[in-house]
UniProtKB/TrEMBL annotation:
This is J domain-containing protein. The keyword Cell inner membrane does not apply. The keyword Signal applies. Keywords: Signal. PROSITE patterns: DNAJ_2 (PS50076). Pfam families: DnaJ (PF00226), Thioredoxin (PF00085).
Length: 174
């Protein structure tokens, strides 16, 4: 007589725990595009810009009171490392997280690294920052390109940036 309510109790417990389990699984397999707040059609430049904004606010150095800041930042960093790399992004799009090598990513730098280690011209819509794949395509396009090589942490490069912008604009009008 006391055992007749037992299956009903187990069923209620399962129904109570199922949403919690589903939420935990969903949190573990969060989509990299969602983590960065970009669409699946986002360009490398848009992905980089989104990560830069998140890195400046989510870095554990900026959130010392949040015990989960380290883990959250690792997830965002992993998403950026995968989506910025053309080959890894294709694997991720095709197979999801399971298609990626487990040894990739997982490390991050200090907050200042993310503050200064981005392109001088990233926010300039008239200037295109090329990665190696974009550079190859530009060379093969037959168009004339003005290419400026620089190091993001070079103060001299930062001082010359306005001059190069003006020169690029003059070249575009010729």
């Amino acid at each position: 007589m006391c055992c007749t309510g037992y299956p009903l109790l187990i069923l209620r417990l399962l129904l109570l725990l199922l949403p919690i389990l589903l939420l935990a699984v969903w949190a573990e397999t969060r989509d990299y595009y969602d983590l960065l707040g970009v669409s699946r059609e986002a360009t490398t430049r848009e992905i980089r810009r989104a990560f830069k904004q998140l890195a400046l606010t989510m870095h554990p150095d900026k959130n010392p009171g949040d015990p989960s800041a380290h883990e959250k930042f690792l997830q965002v960093n992993r998403a950026y490392e995968v989506l910025k790399d053309e080959d890894l992004r294709k694997k991720y799009d095709k197979y999801g997280e399971k298609g990626l090598d487990e040894q990739q990513g997982g490390r991050y730098e200090s907050w200042n690294y993310y503050r200064y280690d981005f392109g001088i011209y990233d926010d300039d819509l008239e200037i295109i920052t090329l990665d190696s794949g974009d550079f190859e395509a530009a060379v093969d396009s037959g168009e004339i390109w003005f290419i400026n090589f620089y190091f993001p942490r070079c103060s001299h490069c930062h001082q010359l940036a306005p001059t190069w912008r003006r020169m690029a604009r003059v070249q575009c009008t010729v």
